[in-house]
Amino acid sequence: MIFGQRSRARAAAAARAAERPAEPDIDSVQPVARTVAETVPPGMVIAGAWAWRLLLILGVLGVVAWLVIQLEYVVIPLFLAIVLAALLVPISQRMQRRHVPKWLAVAISEIGVIVAVGALVYLVTTQIIGQYDSLRAQTLTRYADLRGFLTDGPLQLSEQQLNDAYAQAVDAVQRDAGALLSGALSVTSSLGHVLTGVLLVLFSTLFILIDGAGMWSWVVRLFPRLARPAIDGAGKAGWTTLQNFVKVQVLVALIDAVGIAGGAAIIGVPLAIPIGVLVFLGSFIPIVGAVVTGTLAVFVALVYNGLTQALIMIAIVLIVQQVEGHVLQPLIMGSVVKVHPLAVVLSVAAGGMVGGIAGTFFAVPLVATLNSMVKHVASGAWRGQPEPPPPAVPADAAHATRRPNPRKPTR
């Protein structure tokens, strides 16, 4: 009996063992396929994460650049007003610290700029009108010399060939009279845009001088609360850099203009004051502006004074530019605008491609300001800073908006 039970138990155990799956051979097991994300190397994952974020940033910057180009008649005067305000705000604040009323300090700063620009225009116009007769005579003389060089020089052109070329030029002008008329209308329209832009610059500068801090506080409050200290600190750092850049650039441009215009006046080159004004304006475009305006000064000396004075003018321009490049730029500009010279050249080139002359003018201050803002955010100096306070409300406005307390009815 017991023997039979043991046999049945062994049979049941054998049956259960037969039903149990066999142990797999480790060498014959095929690896389970992983997901695609798991097969990507970690370095590629990090590069992809950076790539789409950079593409998003570039897309946003592209949209902003497109909007700036479309609204150039508003954006350019606004940028110019900001640059001008960066120069005038310290002057206005200095007068206010000496107990000058704010409205008077703002008025003196704004009117001072208008008077300075008007004085420059008056000096340039006066010199051009005063030297018109002599310039006209010298121009005709140089034209005759050019014709003589073309006929008697290596080219050996005949008078008939020169007259035919002149007649062809006149015919081309007459055929393109319609284009010239449309160009004149375009110039008229451009003059209207220029006048509108001048008014926008003056009004924008005025309001920045009056309430620039309040407008910036309003801009900061558009951002999330946690980001406000970083935005406010970056904006203040960029504004400080822009102020220093404008002050130093005005000093450097003034030294360049006085040096080149003074040298031109000493050797008797005509239009010394207009040349100085062009050099002053061109110096705000680093590297490129000085070369272009210096070349113009040499060309005027060559046309109206001859080869000897032109060579002397080249020496004057080179000396001034060497002083700027090796003395003024490292000692004065280098401590303010910490941007590599290659970055300056590339920014000027990119600004010229995008915005023309205005782009070359605003490229370097924009790059310097953005560089300062990015460095401030990356440094983390804004962490732990309190949220900037809301813009102050004038006492009269606060009193006007305060609700009067109703009087308690008397019994």
Automatic annotation (TrEMBL):
Q: Name one GO cellular component term.
A: plasma membrane
GO BP terms: namely:
transmembrane transport
Q: Which residues form the signal peptide?
A: none
Record's Pfam families?
AI-2E_transport
The superkingdom listed in its UniProt entry is Bacteria
The record, for InterPro entries, names: AI-2E-like
Q: Which keywords fit this entry according to its UniProt record? A: Cell membrane, Membrane, Transmembrane, Transmembrane helix, Transport
Q: Report membrane topology.
A: Multi-pass membrane protein
Comp. bias (Basic residues): 400-411
Q: Where are the transmembrane segments?
A: 50-68, 74-91, 103-124, 194-219, 250-273, 279-304, 311-332, 344-368
- Compartmental location: Cell membrane
Annotated region (Disordered) at 381-411
* Family to which the UniProt record says this protein belongs: Belongs to the autoinducer-2 exporter (AI-2E) (TC 2.A.86) family.
Protein's UniProt name: Permease
Which organism encodes this protein? Clavibacter nebraskensis NCPPB 2581
